[in-house]
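just leaving the lab so this will be short. below you get a single protein, a line of residues and a line of whole numbers that encode the local backbone shape. id like you to explain what the token line says about the fold, in plain words if possible. thanks a lot i owe you, the record is right below:

…
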Amino acid sequence: MEALRERHRLPAERPCLLFPGDYEYSQAHPVILAALPRIMRLPPRPVLVFACRTKTPQAAAVEAEVRQQVDAMGFGDDVRFLREVDDFESLLAIATLVLFPVRSLRRKMDIPLTLLQALALRRPIVTSTLGPLA
């Protein structure tokens, strides 16, 4: 796990908040971006990880917009964008908290596998009242 931390600049002394979702269907990124200023005021300041595969040109375009918004808010050094993760279970194990405030589970199973994996690793999950996981 230490190599994973180093590769993705995830310091052990900072909480790691993980969004293991998508940019196209879930509509979670606007929720996360709206909360980002409040999230980054938490002591100690966390690192936010968007672990979202960009499977289509549309997903890549949305990621670029999200990156732009994060930079405009001044949090570029605190947010990581991981398109591919070769050891997802280790990334979940590093996570302090899993963020999953999705508005849609389109193209997903009833309960996404990533959430089941997080539960198996005893990682807390934050959903929202906006969608199917309320």
Q: What stands out?
A: The helical segments are 2-7, 29-39, 57-73, 88-94, 113-120.
